[in-house]
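Example: Gfo/Idh/MocA family oxidoreductase.
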Amino acid sequence: MTRWGLIGASTIAREWMIGAIRATGGDVVSVMSSNAERGRKYADDHGIAKAVTSLDDLVNDPAIDAVYISTTNELHRDQALVAAKAGKHILCEKPLAMSLDDARAMVQAAKDAGVVLATNHHLRNAATHRAMRKAIKAGRIGTPLAARVFHAVYLPPHLQGWRLEKPEAGGGVILDITVHDADTLRFVLDSDPVEAIALSQSGGMGKAGLEDAVMGVLRFQNGVVAQFHDGFTTKFAETGLEVHGTEGSLIGRNVMTQRATGSVTLRDADGEHDLPLDQANLYETALSAFHAAIAGNGKPSATGEDGIWSLATGLAVAEAARNGGAVKIAPGI
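Written out as structure tokens, the predicted fold is:
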């Protein structure tokens, strides 16, 4: 059994991760919160034995094998470095860090310590995206030419906070949502992005000049050009991912979501066909792979290097939106 410590008494841990850890043979034994009262209540509410306020107390606890980092983005690097030094395996929320240098330092620290480091990019665990990747690899749409991502949603009040108010914490839609698009497209297309152009928008939700929506285009190494629309401001839009090739199109609907839902339709010369999907909890799929990687069997669903790629893409999109030109994507891994 893998014994976990939570670095951050977060909403995502409460809603998804604690259950996924336990469902895949792990246990959550401690939680760290800078607010002692909040941490104790969080622990009591979720059946966690210990609550601590110090990072050192958590990572130096011999009862802990792995940590899940879900604090605000500017804290990830230092927390991961301390955890790696303490010999703990690390699952970190996206984006890994605020800069590529910091993200690369995290990956290197994990390698030096001989621990597993993974990025919590949940969408590549979806049955819909795995079916699309498999269909493309099997040649069912011929040569991929273009893709479109619809990932404009409404950020509910209980999740707004720092995402709309703190640029220093990595707030804004690009580092929150666009990085997911980048990782999902890399996974589905099995190719890396090389260039970005973008326009951002402030639609009334973002404070301190933070963008709350963005549209742009990514060019991939294999020649695919991919549109994306991300937002916090659209209450009634659906999500989707389309990939169009020389011999067919894949149409994914309601697939950019934490839930195990959505559909994928293949359109080709023979008509329309719904792809069979083996739907499963995305986070449980991720935790199963992570636990296996700790045991020396395979690797996490999204590695630290995958996290560097998505961060590099997000930073390029942000730069393109600021400067109005095309920006090269070069993670320097």
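The chain is about 35% helix and 25% strand.
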